[in-house]
Structure formats: C-alpha cells, structure tokens
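Cross-check.
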Amino acid sequence: MTGRQLPDFVERDVDLATRTTLALPGRAAFYAEIRSTAQLERLAGTRALRRFVLGAGSNLVLTGDFDGIVLHMAISGRQLIGEDDDAWYVRAGAGENWHQLVNWTLVKGCWPGLENLALIPGTVGAAPIQNIGAYGLEMADRLQSLEAFDLRTGKTLRFDRDACRFAYRDSIFKHEGWHLNARLVITRVTLRLAKAWRPLTAYADLAAELDRQQLGRPNARQIADAVIAVRRRKLPDPAVLPNAGSFFHNPLVDAAVGERLAAAHPNLPRYPQADGRVKLAAGWLIEQSGWKGRDLGRAGMYEKQALVLVNRGGATGTEVVALARAVQASVGERFGVELTPEPVFL
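Predicted model, tokenized:
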C-alpha cells in the first residue's frame, strides 16, 4: 500500500508540533488518528511507508519532518472487566490518558494500586513500552496482559506480563518494532489491582510530603494527591513551558562503580537494586555538572529540576539534540557515567 492507496481517514501534511509536549517544529507526510482496530486492519501491509506510533507526544523529540505515516493512538474505553478473591481487573484502550485512568480507578471503584503513578504524562498504550515508574512502583508490577495489533500479519496478539520482558524503563516493545517502522501497535491494556493493597511510601520525596500533611497512615487517594503535589512542584506544565518530562534515565552502574563514585562524592544519591547494581540520580549528576537552569540556544535544563529539558520558546530539534549531547558529555567527563535519553527521537 502506497501513499496514493491509503484509506480516506489518513490526512496529509500534518503539523506535529501541537501534538507533542516539547512543541518542536515538524510535519508528517501522512497522519491517521486510530480509534479502532478496524482502522489498523485497513492499514496492515503499508510497508512502502515508514510508520511511527504516537501517543500523547510527551516522550518525543521531533528532529524535523517525517516522510512516513504517523499513527496517533486514540482507542478509548475503560472498564472493570472482572474480579476474583485476589484482585480487580481493569481494561483500558491505548488512547486513554494515563493520569485520568489512575484517577478513575481511585474514584470510580476505589480500586487502589496505581496511585504512585499519578500525573505521569502519556497514554495507556505507551505505558508498557516505557515500563513507566515512579516512587517505588512500575507498570510491570500491575500489568496483567495487553493486546497488540501486528501490522505485518493483520492479527491481534496477546502478551502476558512475562512476554513483555519488562526491565527498568524497558520492554520487548522497544526492540521488536514499536515506534519507528512500527510492526506492533498496542491497542488495549489489562491491569491487575490486588485487593490486599499495601501503601508504597518509602521514597524520600513522597514520605516528606505525607509527613508535611501529617498523614501517618495514608489511603490510596491521599498517596496519589501527595504524588501529584510533589510532581507539580518539580515539573513544569508543558502548556506553560514545553518539555518532555524527565529527559534522561537514572543510570544503572555496577556496585563497584557506585562505591567508587560514593567515595569521591559522599552526597551522591544511590539506590541498590535487586540485581546487585546501583541506580544513580541523573538529575543530581546533571546539577553537579553545572547544567541546572542553564540554556544552550533556545533549549535548557529546568531551574527547579535539572533532569527536565525545556523549550524556552522557538527551539528546534537540532538545538535539543545539541543540549542533550552537551549534558551527556559534561556528566561523562566529571563522573564517568553515560546518560541515556528517555524520549524517542524522530
């Protein structure tokens, strides 16, 4: 299927800047808002065009125009599909807003379990790809299964938690044809919310906020509100100051490297991992390297949180790439640690 043969719901020459939170310039040769699997079935076999799957655009750096087709996932719907003695099971369409889903589980049915992931930007379909996480919880901890449409075969596949091959900010979908030249498109996600709920409040920022509110035994709603308060203090509103949230992964290093860095930098935040490695705070590394609040061209690192790259107004993808590389070089030179960007570059 070529550009001339595309279905009538496909638009041509579409501006992508308004569909991303960094607000960088870029256009798509073809663009389709996907509201049903039936539309994907009509697009199956479009191998002549490069494909890119777009969610909320909150994890994307546009480096220019895209000569293929952008599939903007907008499949909606959320419902409780069942429960047993141990858990509730909630299913949501890939186009649902993630934060709105979190709120819905807490308000609609008082089904706790997602509260630590409140206010994370993006869509439900994108959440498993990145294995989103915050304050001691990851998507992998709550996913039951998901459905993904195979654009090559025209079939819908089911993945359980193990098949997703989750790791820190990683999944099989990052490596098996997800964004660029996409083969698999996540359409629905099913979450398992355990009835034997226990609060996760050990992370310092969250614990401090709960203490400030004098909540010694918070419920799920109170934890979500505390997470929201912390995130709003640290992260700028993309509608006011365009950004893509946390721009770099927190690096994972061998235990020996962590000990060496801690000896040289006693204030270095570090978090031992189950596999023996140590997670470092990328924001701290960036701040100590002199980039907090510093600009390069029309892009900069946010003055309240060094991990957040912002568009000061009129920035281009070239400027963002230049800033990211400069930050990586500074951190590498000072600490010998390589930072990996979180966003996808298109």
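The chain has four domains: 3-73, 78-161+185-194, 204-234, 243-345. The chain has a mean pLDDT of 93. Passed to J.P. for a second look.
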